[in-house]
């Protein structure tokens, strides 16, 4: 079963034991800054230049190396997921990775050590090597953020400036279906565990940076050639574009402790509330505030459009999924992240959804702060967990034992 199916049974009051389920499929889709790609591909004929000193891919800086490939006309580069284009505002590595996987041609600009410039184009199919690496993905669960200060804040945790005085909240984390949440002691997830990263089979290679037994996260790797572009992308924030990634992990029910974690629902899972300005914890809620009795997808009613002179949903959409065509609003569902920010800035009600409200105590006072932006896409995560379930049942995806435990 999927983790969502298990949680629905628990919510109905049904008893679930280890005789009822062998494997639970879990997933998450969210902004995951700890991402980088290693790419290798030819850019010119051999001996045309000795070494590259600088490289841009669609204006996104790439780090040359580690192999110099002297006089071979081949680039080995590393592209950080947090890299921003020097040519196009709000375009970053997340957009680049998605466009490569979509099969689009990207512009390559190389400055050689002789200070000559070489311009070319390349597609993913022309790259013999293209791997995406995670340095800090799939947190057990992340956090919600509010701005306690009296000034607006630019941050990666909001699509625009974060309004002051706790007028709205943002959040990350898929709660009850998140992979590590369903195996918090890492009994089944370890080094060598096969996973889906952006839809492609890959492997866990260890714990992530700043990971700990109390707050675990994962590192991993997968081949970009086999990824699904719909599960990737770039996400605009007020501090620059960030990178989206998706994971799906199968959790074998091997012990009572694993089953106990699987049976926890959003009501049981704490969601820390942080002050985005000082990055300190100010309270605690649960993931039920975000995902119980809320809408996974955004409802779209273009007939409600007021034809505002400046359309804020078009201007502010973190995914640039909203356009106007032939005097009519259009929503690109393929591009949409279901973050919900459009409905918080649209005065006409073109976009509607129940996003939830944070309920927490701060300094002895009860706070109710409406959620205005979700940086995790629970809808696609649930679909990805279902896809992994289907792959396992059909024999397309084979579970494997880890090589070594992480903790």
Automatic annotation (TrEMBL):
Keywords: 4Fe-4S, Iron, Iron-sulfur, Metal-binding. Residues 296-327, 328-356 form the 4Fe-4S ferredoxin-type domain. It holds the Pfam family HcyBio. InterPro entries: 4Fe4S_Fe-S-bd, 4Fe4S_Fe_S_CS, Fe-S_Ferredoxin, HcyBio, Methan_mark_16. GO terms for molecular function: 4 iron, 4 sulfur cluster binding; metal ion binding; oxidoreductase activity. This is Methanogenesis marker 16 metalloprotein. It comes from Methanolobus vulcani.
